[in-house]
Every structure is written in structure tokens, then in C-alpha cells.
Amino acid sequence: MATQKVGGEVDAYCTRCKLTLAHTILAMVGTKIARVRCNTCNGDHAYRGAPGATDRPTSSSSSGSTPRASRSSSSGTTKAEKIIISFEEQLAGKDVANAPRYSPKDTYAVDQVLQHPTFGVGFVTAVRGDKFDITFRTDTKTLVHGRGGAPTEKPAFSPPVRQATGPADKPQTAAADAPAEDAPVSEG
Ligand SMILES: [Zn+2]
């Protein structure tokens, strides 16, 4: 396909001639043509692609020229398949049949195979304290483990710090009924 550039020719709809005619490209924004000059009437105007794309003129006079719309976007990369194959390959040497169901109370080691109720079969790739990374077919997750005998963890609670309102250096205005921004937070 021919790459369009400033100074080149392009078929565009001329707003004056009301026809799709050869135009000279005057300006481009990225790969898109921004401004063109009609080779017939020499008029500058914004580039307009195929006729009738947006504001179709009411009197559609067919000029007989077919708009060139050969769009060949080849985005046929299949890298998702490769991940699946490698996942299967990595899983192949592991004891999938005896893979235990994941439980945060158990403790797992690297290369351990697990069954997760949501993500399916996965294998542990890294262990960091009470967390571990596990690779599933579709995703890599970080899960917790080793929570078996631990007592119920209390969430760290920090009492809300009361914002000390300074001395009344802010004069009270007459607009008293404004919505109070610093309404007292109800601690329930
Ligand atoms: Zn023209």
C-alpha cells in the first residue's frame, strides 16, 4: 500500500466541486491527512475521505468513482496460545492428579500444584512469607497460606485523629447555612 505524505496525491471529496477528485496533500496529522488542495479548483479545505461518510449532501450526484477502502489490518498474532502451551508443558511434569484443593490454612512450597475453585489448576512459583505466587492457566495470582493455627487477626485499629481547630481566626460569615464540610463523623 502506498504511504501518503505531504505533497502526494489523494482522492478526496472536494467541497466546492462536490466531487471526489484528485487532491494534493497539504498537511498531515500523524498518518491521517488533515488538509488537501483540490487539483481541479485549487481550493484548500480539510481532508474528507469517502463521500457521504458524515454529512452526505442531499443531492447525491454519483461521480462514478468508487471510494478506495482497502483496509488490510493484519493483527493475527496468537500469543495467547503460546502461554497455554507453556502452561501445559510446565504442568506436565507435576502431580496434577493428586493436587490438593487450595486452602489458606495449608502451607505450600514452590512447584506445588493446587486446585483452585475459581482458577483451576495452578502451580506455585514463589513463596513470600504468608503469601505465594501461583500461575494458573489464565492468570497469575498471589494467594495467602499458612493461616492454619494462627489466631484470628485483629485488624489494626487506629482511632481517628481529631483535627484540632485552631483559634477562631476565620471570621464567621453570615452564610451560616452552607453545608458543613467538617461535620462530626459518627463513630458507630
Ligand atoms: Zn475542487
Provide a descriptive summary of the structure in words.
Residues 52-78, 167-188 have a biased composition (Low complexity). Residues 46-79, 144-188 are annotated as: Disordered. With 188 residues, the chain is mainly beta. Among the domains are: 9-46; 80-144, no CATH class. It contains 1 helix and 8 strands, in the order ββββαββββ. It has one helix at 79-92, and strands at 9-14, 19-29, 32-38, 44-46, 113-116, 120-128, 131-136, 140-144. The longest helix is centred in the middle third of the chain and has 14 residues, at 79-92.
Mean pLDDT across every amino acid position: 76
Instruction: Compute the CA-based radius of gyration.
Output: 34 Å
The shape is flat
Most strands sheet: 4 strands, antiparallel
Query: What percent of residues adopt helix (DSSP H or I)?
Result: under 10%
Count all strands and give the number.
8
Low-confidence stretches: 52-62
Secondary structural class = mainly beta
Q: Helical region count?
A: 1
Task: State the separation between the terminal residues, measured CA to CA.
Answer: 68 Å
Strands of the biggest beta sheet: in what spatial order? 1-2-3-4
SSE pattern, N- to C-terminal = EEEEHEEEE
* Strand content bin: 25-35%
Name every ligand kind in the structure: zinc ion
List the helices and strands and how they pair.
Blueprint: E1 9-14, E2 19-29, E3 32-38, E4 44-46, H1 79-92, E5 113-116, E6 120-128, E7 131-136, E8 140-144
Antiparallel strand pairs: 1-2, 2-3, 3-4, 5-6, 6-7, 7-8
